[in-house]
Amino acid sequence: MSDKTPPTVFAKQIDLLYQNAPSAILASALIPVMFLIFLTDFPERKAIQTWAIMMELVLLFRMFTIFLYHKRKKKKSFQVKQASSLFNTGVAMASMIWGSLAWWIYPLTGDQSTHFLFFISLIGVTGGSVASLSYRQLPNYLFICLTTFSMLIGLYRTSGHQNTAVAIITVVYTIFLLKNVRIMQGNNEKMLILKEKALAREVKLKIASKKTEVASRAKSRFLANMSHEIRTPMNSIIGRTRLALDERIEPKMRSHLETIQSSSKDLLALINDILDFSKIEAGELKITNKPFNLYETIQSILNTVKVLVQDEKDLAVTYTIAPDVPQAVVGDSLRLRQILLNLLNNGIKFTENGFVDLSIECLKSTDTSLLLQFKVRDSGIGIAIDKQKHIFDEFAQEDDSPTRQFGGTGLGLAICRQLCQLMGGNIEVSSRPAQGSTFTVAISFQPCEINDLPADTTPGKIEQKQNAPMSLLLVEDNEANRILARMVLEGEKHQLVEANDGLQALHILSEQKFDAVLMDVQMPVMDGYTATRIIRSLENGDPVTDVDNQLTEKLQKRLSGCHTGVYRTEPF
Ligand code: ADP
Predict the structure, then answer these.
(1) Mutation probe of ligand 1 site: the residue of 390, 398, 428 with most atoms within 8 A of C-beta
(2) Domain 456-568 fold
């Protein structure tokens, strides 16, 4: 090993030598056999037979060393230097036997054509060795020098007037071979070093990208948790402001409160976007497919956005549903709502006059799947062609100047795209500046019968029978939110029982029946998801293992066969 050769590259070189050797050895093994077949009138037949046997034995020994190498390579005790020495020994032995053809067998005959045959065989074997031994200089030098030196001795020992010329040609040929060996070996070594570096870089990159991925997930999880923590007091601020606005107050104070309310709502919308986005990034956002009434959902979305159209805008907000679009489908109504609300809100935000229209069509319908297309068209300011491909990237806004006219985070469309993908669909835009935009969303659903729809499919809305007061269980860990809910709900004459967490709620439910449960999601001891899952399992008569047997039995008695509406207290 030269000083400069790194150990890993040296090991690779030796490995390549062992890999290349078998084909060269097999080709060499044919030559003695040819001699025995064709040189039948050679004067010293015994000598050439002995030589052929010695040659084949050495080649066999080399094959055995290759076998040994591959066997030992897998073992921990394997030594590259030993493997290298063994290889060189095999090469030296083979070159000495080839050399003996020149100094021993060559002078035994005076026949010119036999001389030519020996000479051409030796030149061929020496030339061929350069390629197969090109990864290390030492075995190559050994082979070339020992063989060609023996050729010179053979020529010296044989009478003939052209021998001097042949010897000169042999020397020139040897020098040429040695020079080429040096260049080839150098190039091969450089290539192996580069390959080694590229491999090391690839491993480093993989580790770095894994680390970045882990860090990014941790960041997204942190953001998701933080956003949740910020939302809780925000709800309290918005709710209390609403209650304060219901009071009789002087106009100046009302104006202050209205500003607080609208700013808080903007802030909450922003936090909601960040929360959703970080949840998607952390892979924590799950799509919940349930049967829902598509027509009612669309109607409710339109009612929500129509409120946003300011009086000063001359804007018609319309919708059409193609007759072949079924009323009942299985899908995630909340996420569909979120996508359409964002697209319609954008349409209204970026259109001064004209229209914003939602149209729904069925693209494909089978017994088990439905592909629906939702098109939101507007006659607004449109989007420049070069900005359209970036519009779905996070934080992308067409106008990103500090003096931009329209607010927003640039997260809405990024979230829409991610949600569409999670729901097995996609979203596209086509737009012309000053002429309007069309956002086309395709989402997969499953068909279902209208009878399969549960009673409470409108999200977050409690069915209240004839405005009668209801008995409600509020499950909420944040005290400010509990006080707020109490003020609002008791103001509407409902009876309220409060629980701090999911487990406490289960204990209360085991004692008392309620018209509905208002459930927070993230809570200590037991979160809202777990508590709701337990309630639903017990209602359906399914086994439950999360709580102790005594509580399970009591809950079973109260809940089995019933259905209590559980409503999430967090806004989406
Ligand atoms: P936001 O509206 O909060 O900035 P979005 O991701 O919803 O974020 O939209 C990103 C950008 O795409 C907007 O800032 C706007 O430049 C452009 N855009 C979206 N919808 C429309 C539309 N209907 N008409 C014109 N531009 C739009």
Answers:
(1) 398
(2) Rossmann fold (3.40.50)
